[in-house]
Design goal:
Helices cover 61% and strands 11% of the residues. It is of the alpha+beta class and 244 residues long. The chain has a four-stranded antiparallel beta sheet. Helix 1 (6-13) crosses helix 2, helix 4 runs antiparallel to helix 5 (75-110) and helix 6 packs antiparallel against helix 7 (167-189). The chain is elongated and about 110 Å long.
Length: 244
């Protein structure tokens, strides 16, 4: 039967000599022999036992629980109970991790696209989340009202084309123009912009905002604070900023 020194056994199993000495001190794995000069000698049985200890430890069991398994005559029963308990702990941990992942993803999606925004308290995070929710509601209302206007416009247009009745179309165009003006004012009343250069939040004039180049999240505006023209990030106007 092969025999191993402490160093050799540690190398075979990928653990430190200090760990083996600790297992010896805890009476978890004692050497089968003590050689000359107090050298600890381990056998293949010890190696097999150490592999079992490392396996159980890797599953998350404590050294105390592992010792109970190794010392008991009913080790299989104890191992089964401990594994069931560990299984529940791991499942709970997975559920917690999934919940944390969902929070991380939601927070990441809602972070502003400006590096200068500072976060010092939980209130800052809540403000960001509420801002995004408010902005989402504005966009949703714009889409719904826009669809109603389109239905009115194209419906009366179809009526004029197929039925030769045009007065509903001309009448609806007046409503469409009024509706478009209302939507434009509503949109810019509910939105502010943050300058990416000085981080100032401001509300531009309707004229400037309406004709500015823009994408889904930003408009190219001139910041009234630093005077620089750049794509400014759209945010929800929660009513704290001065009205225009």
């Amino acid at each position: 039967m092969s025999e191993f020194t402490t160093g050799k056994l540690a190398k075979l199993t990928g653990i430190s000599i200090r760990t083996l000495q600790y297992y010896d001190k805890r009476a978890l794995l004692k050497p089968s022999k003590i050689g000359e000069g107090g050298r600890r000698i381990y056998t293949e049985t010890d190696l097999s036992k150490l592999k079992l200890i490392l396996l159980l430890k890797g599953l998350g069991l404590s050294l105390k629980a592992i010792a109970e398994i190794l010392e008991s005559k009913n080790s299989i029963v104890i191992l089964k109970l401990l594994l069931e308990q560990q299984q529940k702990i791991l499942k709970d941990s997975i559920d917690d991790s999934k919940a944390q992942l969902k929070t991380v993803e939601e927070l990441y999606r809602n972070l502003p696209q400006i590096k200068q925004v500072s976060i010092k308290t939980i209130d800052d995070i809540e403000d960001i989340m509420n801002n995004k929710k408010g902005l989402k509601k504005v966009h949703l209302k714009m889409i719904l009202y826009g669809l109603l206007i389109d239905v009115l416009e194209y419906g009366t247009l179809a009526l004029g084309i197929f039925k030769r009745v045009w007065w509903p179309f001309f009448g609806s165009m007046i409503l469409v123009i009024i509706g478009a003006i209302f939507l434009t004012r509503f949109y810019f009343q509910k939105t502010n912009y943050i300058c990416p250069n000085c981080n100032s939040e401001f509300k531009p004039s309707i004229k400037e905002a309406f004709w500015a180049s823009h994408n889904f999240r930003a408009r190219k505006l001139t910041c009234p604070v630093c005077g620089k023209k750049d794509y400014c990030i759209e945010v929800y106007d929660n009513g704290d900023s001065a009205s225009w």
